[in-house]
Structures are given as C-alpha cells and as structure tokens.
Amino acid sequence: MKNLEDYFHYYDLAKDDEKSRERLISLFSNEIEFVLNGDRKQGMNSWKSFLNMFFEGTLEIKHMYEGWSPVPGEPASYETKWAVCGKRATGEVYTLTGVDKARLDAEGKIVYLENIPDTANAFDKYKNI
Known about the structure:
Blueprint: H1 2-13, H2 18-26, E1 28-36, E2 39-42, H3 44-56, E3 58-65, E4 69-70, E5 77-88, E6 93-104, E7 110-117
Parallel strand pairs: 1-7
Antiparallel strand pairs: 1-2, 3-5, 4-5, 5-6, 6-7
C-alpha cells in the first residue's frame, strides 16, 4: 500500500528530478500493465516510454487524490479519485479529474494501473508507445 501512497508524490516530482523518477519507476513491477482511456500497455519498457513522452510534453504537474480505498471483492486492488492541473510544454494549462484503479503484487509493487479520466480521449496522443 505504501507504493500507492507514494505514486502521485513521485509522479509530480519526476519531471525535474532523476532520483524521484527512479523512485517512481521502482514502485512498479516489471510486469506492469497500465491502461489509459481503455488502451492497454504491457511491461516496464512501455511504462518508461509513456513517462518519457509525458514528461517531454509537460512543464509542470500537480496531483491531488482522495486516498486509496480497497475494491470490494478484488484482492490487493484499490482505487482513488484524483484531480490534476498541469502546464504543457506549449504553455497551455489544463485540468483533469478521474479515477485510478490499481492492483499490487505479492511484493507490494504496482502490477496494474488503470487511469480513467472523466474527459474522454484525454490520453489519445499516447496510444503509439
């Protein structure tokens, strides 16, 4: 559960701090499966590619979340509501809200992460990673 609590913290710092980026990556299993707007990706290389692409297009980012709650009937699965504001490399500012669902492996690493934004197609530009 500690890895989930650290996730948003290190995500926000990872843009400009290599140690925070390494810490963020260490929260995840090498077998990570992540889902952005229904588009599934597998493995640590895909996760790192997504992060690199995301941070290249981002100047600043800040997440807020309500806290991770267990998903009834799904062992080691949790979800949280979140909100984010950011500034893209283009100078454009944005806000998004949504829900994240996550599952931890036996070591407590994040093995599954699904990002479900309230805005349809919010992550379409990342489909080609």
